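Bug #77: duplicate submission created two jobs. Keeping one. Sequence:
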Amino acid sequence: EWTKSCKSYYEILYKICTACKTDPFDIEELDITSDIKAQQELFGIVKDISSLLSQGTPVYPPGTLESELVLISVNNHSPRVLELILAAGAPLLKTEGRYSILEMAWMTTTSTTKEAVMITRQMEMNLYYELKQIVN
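Kept job's structure:
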């Protein structure tokens, strides 16, 4: 079971990296046919990741590995993938060095405002849910 979850976790990591290489909005390339093809390829990758997550692929790294799906998605500009990973319940409290994922999303030059807002909103919803659990 551990080997299977490890394999599917790394399959998601690979697909995130593949999605980062697929840019359907490349300004230098104005060929509509290749734009449509790149978009279809990206949607296929997002669909594959969604399928893996729905099959129970862990969003936490197996064992003591340092990589984190949320951080990799943020650092590689994968907002569609980030949405899936957050929806699957990815941990947001992990720190990288001395910064939390939330701080890294807002401070690093590799993340976009959209990604930072998505993480902030997810963190806000998590805190609101926990507050409701305490009050009730």
